[in-house]
Design goal:
Blueprint lengths: L1 E4 L4 E4 L6 H13 L2 H17 L4 E6 L2 E6 L2 E8 L2 E7 L1 H19 L16 H13 L18
Antiparallel strand pairs: 1-2, 3-4, 4-5, 5-6
Helix pairs in contact: 1-2, 2-3, 2-4
C-alpha cells in the first residue's frame, strides 16, 4: 500500500492482489479514522497494545474489521456470505500509521482561510487535535516526543 497526496486529501493505492490487509489499512487510515484526530487514535491504540496498557483494539467499519493485539492484526472483509481474512504483524499497521501521520504533518497542518475553527484556533491543526485527544483521554498521548509530536506543550 502507498499513500497518495492530492490537493484535496491523502488517499491510498493498494494492489488488489495483496489482499484484504492493504485495503483495510488504507480505508482505516485515510477514510474511517482520517485526519489528525483519527491518526492519533490509531497511533495510541498501537502503542497501548505494544506497551501492554491494552490487550486488544477492534475497529469495525463497512465490510471491514481490524482486530489488533500483540499477536498481530487480523484484517477481515465480509461481503455477503464471503469472508476474506489476513493476519499481519502489528509492525505493518504501525509503520503505515506512522507514515500517514508524517504525511499529515507535512501536507495538512495548516488552517484554511475562511473556515471557523472552534477548538484552539491559535494552534496548527495537529497540535489542536493532540490537545483535544489528551483532554478526552485524560492522559498524555503515548507518541509525545516521537514523529514530530512535541514532548511537552503546547499549552
Amino acid at each position: 500500500m502507498r499513500f497518495v497526496v492530492t490537493d484535496a486529501r491523502i488517499t491510498y493505492e493498494a494492489d488488489r492482489e495483496a489482499g484484504v490487509a492493504e485495503m483495510a489499512m488504507g480505508v482505516l487510515l485515510t477514510f474511517e479514522l482520517s485526519g489528525f484526530d483519527g491518526a492519533l487514535i490509531v497511533l495510541a491504540a498501537i502503542d497501548d497494545i505494544l506497551s501492554g496498557r491494552s490487550a486488544r483494539e477492534v475497529h469495525e467499519f463497512g465490510p471491514y474489521r481490524v482486530d489488533i493485539s500483540r499477536e498481530g492484526v487480523v484484517f477481515t472483509r465480509t461481503f455477503g456470505k464471503e469472508t476474506e481474512e489476513q493476519v499481519r504483524p502489528v509492525s505493518v499497521l504501525k509503520e503505515a500509521a506512522e507514515r500517514y501521520w508524517e504525511l499529515l504533518l507535512a501536507h495538512r497542518n495548516h488552517r484554511r482561510p475562511g473556515v471557523t475553527y472552534f477548538y484552539r484556533p491559535d494552534l496548527p491543526l495537529a497540535w489542536a487535535e493532540l490537545l483535544s485527544w489528551e483532554e478526552g483521554a485524560k492522559r498524555a498521548h503515548p507518541y509525545r516526543g516521537r514523529l514530530g509530536i512535541p514532548a511537552v506543550g503546547p499549552v
